[in-house]
Amino acid sequence: MDTSSPLHSESTATGSVRRENTTAILAAAEQVFSRGGFDGARMAEIAAEAGLPKANLHYYFGTKERLYAAVLEDIVTQWLDAAATWIVPERHPAEALAGYVRAKLEDARARPDASRIFAGELLRGAPLLMPFLRGELRRRVEAMGRVIEGWSARGLMDRVAPAHLFFSIWAMTQTYADFDVQIRAVLGRDDGPDDEMFATATATVTALVLKGCGVRAAA
């Protein structure tokens, strides 16, 4: 294909606009779904948040259900990518688990709406996410579980139930997004959490995970 042709330039520009629009719509939808849940969100509100005509939302995603599913897919994909980066056999469990905890807490801080949407989907029975939870997520957890078991077999950490370890990490990290109001109230932080608070949270959760799993010090 002649990349200097007007047709190629037009195609490239169209693709760029599409990516920009879908990114803006997903970001706006994340905020609106977080505030009102699936039932309370309106496509017109999402369009206004994105600064785009409502027709664009229907053009790119069709229905509110499909847009909501796309938001959930985007959220979970990011979380799984973080897990795949850290929970690998080549890493020592001290580095891997600490890195995974840090990544999850950084995500809770940077993208709290995402965690709240995920929690809201689970609370309503996960009608859109259930196939994913029983399929891809289960396979991913089983694969990461084999990494955990391999570390245990090598004497790098105690034997633990891998799935329950991940449940605990998810609960400890996502609470900083899902229950941010409670945390701010207890800590007297009306202006929201700062770097120091998250550093303390990261150190505390990391210590609980590493000591609870009996992770040996890296050589």
Determine the structural class based on helices, strands and strand pairing: mainly alpha
Distance between the termini: 54 Å
What is the CATH topology classification name of the largest domain? Answer: Tetracycline Repressor, domain 2
Task: Report the portion of residues in β strands.
Answer: under 5%
List segments where confidence is low: pLDDT < 50 over at least 5 consecutive residues. none
- Tertiary shape: globular
- What profile does the largest beta sheet have? none
- Work out the helicity level: over 70%
Specify the CATH homologous superfamily of the largest domain.
Answer: Tetracycline Repressor, domain 2
Task: Indicate the radius of gyration in whole angstroms.
Answer: 20 Å
The succession of helices and strands, N to C, reads HHHHHHHHHH
Supply the number of structural domains. 2
* CATH class designation of the largest domain: Mainly Alpha
Averaged pLDDT: 90
CATH architecture of the largest domain: Orthogonal Bundle
Task: Work out the helix count.
Answer: 10
Number of strands: 0
